[in-house]
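BUG: 3D viewer hangs when loading the predicted structure for this chain

Environment: internal workstation, default settings.
Expected: structure renders.
Actual: progress bar stalls at 90%.

Input used:
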Amino acid sequence: MLKLMRAPAKYVQGEDALLELRQNVENLGKSFLFICSGSGRKATEDKIRQSFASSEAQIYFETFGGISSRGEIEKMGRLVQEKGIDVVCGVGGGSAIDTAKATAYYQHKPVVIIPTVCATDAPCTGLSVIYQDDGTFDSYLFYPQNPDVVVVDTSIIAKAPVRFLVSGMGDALGTFFEARVCERNHAPSLENGGVTRSAMALCRLCWDTLQDKGLLAKVDAQQGLLTPAVEAIVEANTYLSGVGADNGGLAVAHSVYNGFTALEELTAMHGEVVAYGTLAQLLLEDGPTEEFWQVHRFCRSVGLPVTLAEMGITDKSRVIIAAEKACAPGESIHNMAWEISPKNLEQALLSVDALSAQQK
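Structure tokens produced before the viewer hung:
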């Protein structure tokens, strides 16, 4: 298996970065469709229009339906065709971004990503998570390349609810530990290649940054401050985690999230469940106990869930439903060195909960 590395062609991050959007995308085309979440459109439209004010480019805004489903992707594809769009842009959180990436792929257009929260690493990855119309996980859609341009305006990110930033830390938390499994077991990355030393360096830097700056960034963000710590965590959540996951691969943590989407009582966000899944993965690996507690302490420090109840799961007998879905054929949990059964995974998930209860 050949090793490979992929990343967005251009990554731009900083305060008021959207005011320079036109300069960073004008080489891609002359007409742009911005597929937005409702809140994403409110947060960005004025800045985007200001950036294109002196341009002859045509810009269109469309608020999408809220879920990156095949029906929504087809709807946006028809808009691209009707309006003769050159460039598709995703504005908002993970679902808006995944919808835009899928629309661009099927319509053979370049794609620009503008996250307004950093709750997941979706902006930089070469894939979309596709859901069924009821919100349950359906499949991953993989692309031949990563986004053409990613523009992260941290003055907008800093105004989003802090829970999004923390959830992004949870998604980023799995990056190093899942990639480490893939590297050790010679499992393929999300790009279906071997894991490079460069990829592992990014994944390691992601975890190091979370430990060093995570709590500082949360406290600063709670005060509405845009500090070096916040900038560092935005980069970790968005670029380091995204490029790291793409080129490092996934294991238990993300399968756990996919499994828990089967439980309608789930209240936790994507990254929050990934963090819990990372703890379960460490127990399944049976590695150093101190490493488990090191990750556990980090989760507690920034407010990531470490009990089932914190994710809305009060009936523990239903965990087996999530475990069975997480172990379905094709799930990344099968990148582990030995086969994980639903019963194995259920026990690990319950063990995390029990251990956490002892630490209160």
